[in-house]
Amino acid sequence: MVSRSKQVRIRESLADAKTIPVWLDDPSAPEPREPLKSHRTFDLAVVGGGFHGLWTALTAKERSPELSVCVLEAEVCGGAASGRNGGFAASTLTHGPGIAFDRYPAEAEKLERLGLENLRGLKTDADRWGIDCQLEESGELEVATREHEIVNLLEGADLERRLGREAAYFDSEAIASQIRSPTYIAGLWRKDSTYMLNPARLAWGLARTAEEMGVEIFDYTQVTSLQSDGPDMVLGSRYGSVRAQRVALCTNAFPPLVKRIAAYVVPVYDYALATEPLTPEQMKEVGWASRQGVGDSSNLFHYYRLTAENRILWGGYDAIYHFGGKVGHEFEQRKATFDLLARHFYATFPQLREVGFDYSWGGAIDTCSRFFPFFGSTNRGAVTYAAGFTGLGVASTRFAARVMNEMMFGDKTEISSLELVRSRPLPFPPEPMRYGVIQATRASLAGADRRGRRNAWLRLLDRIGLGFES
Ligand SMILES: Cc1cc2nc3c(=O)[nH]c(=O)nc-3n(C[C@H](O)[C@H](O)[C@H](O)COP(=O)(O)OP(=O)(O)OC[C@H]3O[C@@H](n4cnc5c(N)ncnc54)[C@H](O)[C@@H]3O)c2cc1C
Prior knowledge:
By secondary structure, the protein is an alpha+beta fold. 31% of the residues lie in helices and 22% in strands. Among the domains are: 1-30 and 266-276 and 311-367, no CATH class; 39-96 and 200-260 and 370-422, FAD/NAD(P)-binding domain; 433-463, no CATH class. It contains 12 helices and 19 strands. The strands form 3 sheets. Strands 4, 5, 6, 12, 13, 14, 15, 16 and 17 form a 9-stranded mixed sheet that branches. Strand 18 and strand 19 form a beta hairpin. Helix 1 (4-14) packs across helix 8 (335-348) and helix 2 (51-63) crosses helix 9. The protein is globular, with a radius of gyration of 22 Å. It binds flavin-adenine dinucleotide. Flavin-adenine dinucleotide binds next to helix 2, strand 3, strand 12 and strand 17.
């Protein structure tokens, strides 16, 4: 039970929150581009102007500058998940190294190496293209708040050492040297494998760079049809159309233009808050001198971090699926979730009880049953797609763009032969079973967090390779 005074405090703390992502409330946001209003021909048409589409267009242009490339974006570039996420750029290509070793033991070390190279490459790209995305190489601190979570951290520390990466373990006393919270009982700081950044600035910078390289971007251009016409594909939109030899579909959690993708991806809404900027005194009370991104070690986890202005972005925990896989702006606000997030925030940082929230927002993530992206093509290779980033696509979309380009242009490298690239997740069952399976899994994960044991349903999912640990 939450006391009445706490309920009042939570209500007050959220009362003035703007209902947009903190990142998008930025005077340096670019003006939207003009929509497509004519019939045009390109070598490559990319659908979707988030990280995935923008990296795909940029990779194609860098590979072959003579290609004509366009990006068709239903609203504005970087306005969907890419501009509303936590800004944790993680090296993992598999939603955590543990999953890589469980599922692909033979290639796990290679996947870890490729993931780190990809993350370093993201920074190199941002630097050489002059993108000021407030990138901080601060790593990620995983914190345990329950006894049974400590074992995850110890195993994680072993794995980091085995991979030759820098990690520091903190017990219940030592963790306060990093960040002060009465809820922490241990922590593991992985120093090498995560950067913090401003995702909207990154998306806008990628779009600007793509245009400088000659990519044409059309905002407010929703592709409503995709048909083959001889060797080409024709993409229809409200006021114009594009004929292209190749099409890259980068539409994340939105209804896919190729029906078969829908069996593998469910849109799940994730929510976040951002506080007002912390004063120097408040910063002192929390510590956090190393500015790591933080995630707790439970299945239903919070992620949080400092922004450049010393706001705390606080998100996660509640992942909401709407029956039938509905997506829309109406799902981007959810009072019950914001109340819950605020309550958890004050429990974690009681010393910040005077700090209120300036922003609250949500966005859709493209969850698949293996929790990291899968790849495919159709129409004799003319249409290529990747989806299923499952809430961890800030950096891995860059890797996916490379995979997409190799598939589109027939390259054969160590990447195209990866089992991760060639295999697929299990499809979700159709509705209404889909809704039931997702709710049962969520409830079981919450139970496992409380009890420290996985129930029969989760053990069954583990056996068929669908087990999820945060
Ligand atoms: C609240 C939240 C927090 C997150 N936190 C993190 C994090 O800290 N770290 C991390 O790695 N990941 C995080 N993620 C996930 C990450 O944001 C995504 O994995 C990543 O942005 C995916 O990029 P994308 O280009 O595939 O998707 P999007 O950015 O969603 O872009 C897809 C684009 O396609 C467009 N589109 C769709 N259909 C059409 C069509 N028919 N025609 C034209 N355009 C179309 C959409 O308008 C959209 O702009 C988070 C996501 C959310 C929502």
